[in-house]
Amino acid sequence: MHDKKYPAAIDAFRELATTYKNSQYRDIYNYGLARAYYYAGEYDQALGVLASYDALFPNSYLLPYAHLLRANCDYRSTQLENAFSEYIRAYRTAQDRRLRELSKQSLLTMVEAGYVPPDSSLAQVPADLLCPIKGRVAYQMRARWTDDEMAQFLGDCAAFSVGEKQLPKRIEGRPLIGITLPLSGPYAKYGQSILDGAMLADELLQESNFPVDLLVYDTRADNITAAREAQILADAEVDIVVGPLLSNVAATASAMTSCSDMPLLVPVATEAGFAELSPGCFQLSTNVETIGRGMAQYAVKHRGMTTLAVICPTTIDEMTMADAFADEAKRLGAHVLAVERFRPGETDFGPYVNDIKEAILGPPQDSIFYITLEGDTLKEGEAPVSFDGFFIPATEDQLYLLLPQLEFYRVTTSYLGTDEWNTGKVLKLGEKILKDAVFYSSRAAMQQAAGYDKFAAAYDAKHGTEPDRLAAVGYDAVNLMADAYRAGMKTRGDIINYLSGLEAYEGASGKITFGRDRTNLQLPLFNFRDDQVRPIVEQPIVEELPAEEDQEAYPDSVGVEDIESKP
Description:
Blueprint: H1 6-19, H2 26-39, H3 43-50, H4 53-56, H5 63-76, H6 80-93, H7 97-112, H8 119-122, H9 127-141, H10 147-154, E1 176-181, H11 188-207, E2 213-218, H12 223-235, E3 240-242, H13 247-256, E4 264-266, E5 281-283, H14 288-302, E6 307-313, H15 316-331, E7 335-342, H16 350-361, E8 370-371, E9 377-378, E10 385-391, H17 396-408, E11 411-417, H18 424-427, H19 431-434, E12 438-440, H20 442-448, H21 452-463, H22 469-486, H23 492-500, E13 505-506, E14 511-512, E15 525-529, E16 532-535, E17 562-563
Parallel strand pairs: 1-2, 1-3, 3-4, 4-5, 6-7, 6-10, 7-17, 10-11, 11-12
Antiparallel strand pairs: 8-9, 12-15, 13-14, 15-16
Helix pairs in contact: 1-2, 2-3, 2-5, 3-5, 5-6, 6-7, 7-9, 11-22, 12-13, 14-15, 22-23
């Protein structure tokens, strides 16, 4: 499995396990099969193999390792209570010091990352680990428990207590980074992925003799919890806070810290506007309004397009991108011929396409027929139409249905798209349908990033799988703080000034340039050529709108029609 040919390893171990059921090495075959599934990211399959391992191989020397592997699978599947119990079993049964230490660190790390084990799980903890684990639980819960509740929970472990007034002091020369993410509840796997990247950055910085300290909080994707935690961290000596995950929770945290000097680095939330709620709030991911505006700038200024149309579903992010695109295109002097919106579950786009045609060609007349270059006679609804650019911010499933229908209805144009264009179903449509489409893609930008290979190799070595973009952004957030510290930025004000001037920072998730409103202005663009997603030559940075007092009214645009969704 060292060459990462996991499907081949799965096939090989599965054949050995089924062919040699009576072999003395069957425990090795089953363990190898489960391990191959784990490295392939098929955690449920791995857990299925390991479910009967204790009963089948009670005396196997691999049993402690099987417990550890099962714990890792449970952890990656966000079955945290099961993972905690399996790490305990691995610790209790470990025969070698390395496995025992690894199991111990996994237990402590889970709690440090925000997991609070129930009493039934704590009852299983070995005596030598009980106080360290209880102390870390108390540390996580210090903002929610009273002193009496804290004392009752700790009992004889009071020496490990970290009360609310005992928040850690920043060690001179070491950044103290607060992290607020959902580590429980329905969004836990996304928060955990960001945290995995942040903790990997922490480990690599430790190895390079530049340690940082992480202070992790679980927001539970709850506005009130996030607000409380943001206030605690603002009052503490943390240098910067990374998080929260969701846009609405990030808006709450941003507003809560608006009167403090604490920098807030929001990793992946893409709603527009919340960064403006606090002078220290920064958006690492390009927001939806900036994407729409940037795609219009690319169309008009880089491609010279003058006639444009837009179609999108009636969902908030997509409509925000569509409106920003149309407004910016008009500001730049282009003609926005039509803006069409459809219901999210729509499958027949014919009426919407015909409305766009009508906006361009004029109302239909019963007596009009169209003749093609080949001499064929077409009815009005079959008439071809051509214009420069068509911006379509939509989901993968919507694009998969819409794009072939545009081909059928003889729409000739250049497509402009967003992140959902770089998805399996859309790319399978091929160049005949996609034509010369250009689309924004944060996922492709990560794989092209200068810092990605080093990060991906370290992540694979630790987790046995490829990282996703969430992990890459968490990794970049911690490294940004470390770089600010290396540059001599030791106060919160210095850090805000450092981030405000950031241009073309080369991270693992892509480039980062913060604009006047502290949003990322990078617009990584790609097309699909020769069955490959390739970066285009132009990689523009989105130009910010003029300051409010300098803005003029949008110029009039000929033929603009805003077409609402069908009843």
